[in-house]
Write a structure and sequence with these properties.
single chain, five-stranded antiparallel sheet, 20 strands, 47% strand
Length: 251
Amino acid sequence: MIVDSITTIILTKKTYKPLKANKVFLLVAILSIQMSFAQFAKIVDKDGYVNVRENADAKSKIVGKVNSDEIVYAYEPDEKNKNWLNVYYNDKIIGYIHSSRVQLIESYEPVSPIVRNENKAVFKSGNIKVDIISGKFNYKENKKFFSSSDYNGQKIEDKYKGQPIWGTDGTIPQTYYQSITVQIGDKKVQIPNREIENLFNPNNEFTECHFDRKNDTLYITTINSDGAGGYVALFKIVNGEYKGKMITIPF
């Protein structure tokens, strides 16, 4: 199940400074500590599903099941039982899965980056090409599309066009996705604007593409924003069709 789940709050009185080149090394250092392993993974089980357990033990209570081919976000292995991964599937299914039941997305064939900068990312390998365009976000012009919720008597903007906001951590969005386009052979796929319009402060420099050739599936993964506003996203293209995304907070 590919889901949108956690709501991020915007406090418009603060000022956000977008990620610049001189901050990249700091972000890498932070991520290397917080995300030394954490990454997206696909469930692979001959039984067609895998049990998610409360603790890192085959005898532990089952807290949920995840079907094969579904995507989870895997954190570091358990300290005592290294073969068990702490995984997030959705807000109701969080627990442990044996590492033999997952395949890390990064293990699939990489699609090479040709360009990766603040404004765009281009990936190309063989007949596969991915174009990601981002730009500055005009908050003043788009303010009417933000809505607020009441938090202990305080009105806080937490949705954009009716969807939870990602990547701000109490700040005004500075950048946004303009488009994500995929070309695989003669098939061209445009990820719907509705799927990316609430994902702010993208980091094209930390975007990767991997192709599962056996199942004709392209994965686009990215680590966006920085600090407490950081989030990870995965977009899935199967047989030349967009099949959805998964978003979560990576720490």
